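TL;DR need structure tokens for one chain.
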Amino acid sequence: MVPHGWSHLLAGAHDGRVTTLPRLRIGTESLRTRVAGEVFSRVAGTRGPARRERILRAEGERWFGEDRPIRRVHGDTAMFVGGLRALLLQSLHPLAMAGVADHSDYRQDPWGRLQRTSYFLAVTTFGSEQDAEKAVAAVQAVHRRVHGIAPDGRPYSAADPHLLRWVHVAEIDSFLAAHQRYGAAPLSPAECDGYVLDASLVATRLGVPDPPRTRAELAQQLSAFRDELEGTPEARAAARYLLVRAPLPAVARVPYGALVGAAVGLMPRWTRWPLRLPYLPATEATWGRLAGKGVVSTIRWATAARGATAGDSAGEAAGEAEPAA
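>> reply
TL;DR here they are.
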């Protein structure tokens, strides 16, 4: 059994029959597979299958049953968009961004943070309780080592409960927003609350104080952070690198651009100017949304075409990354 939302092939991807131009169809599918593979590998790393098997086949109870909303959200390719949005949104907190700037090698390894996050999500969502607890302990150990002084003179620590809450709120808001717009099966209002509740269980284990447990609480906590947020030079530089300077092969640049556009299109309007992000409501609502849906669907199709399921894909997205913040 696999979580609902990724267990079927993309509608039409294999149902459309091209009888007069078979070579064109094969060539198109090959190109789609290559494009999706290039984008997917940026998050998956190079040793995804082995780690995927270990996560999914490990014996033992899981934190979440197969019917829980967190499995649907974290097992859908809309997470590609949600992950990019989360990185952009998180960068607006000066202390969180200072930690990334001082302790992350995102310019030399721009995909490492996404890989580490996807590993943690895969283990805590689909892995055994024992593996999930180990992943939480590993992240906490890293957090204890990440501390310093921000450019504005304030001390920061990745283990600070307040910063932990910010990172959690920004992630869950982003993952849910992306799923509702680009996911294969958007959640009902009750399921949205269920997803936030599921995520709060992991957050509590990480040390997040009073994490949101409903969608309304999520919105309230996000709003409560607004006075602390600003577009620092470090945040704008990170956003610029992520959006326009990320190292990619030529075949992946256009689809990655669509994912980036989809992520920016989901950012709240009040975040745009601090990060110097464009605000083009008409374009975002039409071409931007269509392009985002197209790329997310293509990755979903390519993943399904090679026999992966929702849980398999989440595990494979863990790639070779070690559990870290």
